[in-house]
Task: structure prediction
Amino acid sequence: QVQLVESGGGLVQPGGSLRLSCAASGTIIGIYVMNWYRQAPGKQRELVALITSTDATNYADSVKGRFTISRDNAKTTVNLQMNSLKPEDTAVYYCNLAQLGKDYWGQGTQVTVSL
Result:
């Protein structure tokens, strides 16, 4: 089993920055992908960024150049550095681990970008 706990959400003004963290615990082995998704009210959940077990990364076009996904040396925490935030980045952000055909989700953390 894998447990994921997100932190770091909050309220920020447009142009500001936030750093989200996802702490993973449990059995994480082999090939896996850790993802950040977000879901805005009335919209479908969308993939924001991912990092693989071999440290490859990918980003949604809407966040390229503004968001950076990274992992600590122990590979148990994945971070999402969000810069130049826009009101349209407002959403609940979820951490996801895809491993051996299974998906694990965190509880989500709210990010609100507003004056």
User: Anything to note?
Assistant: The radius of gyration is 13 Å. The chain has a mean pLDDT of 94. The first strand starts at residue 2 and ends at 7. Residues 18 and 82 are 5 Å apart (CA to CA).
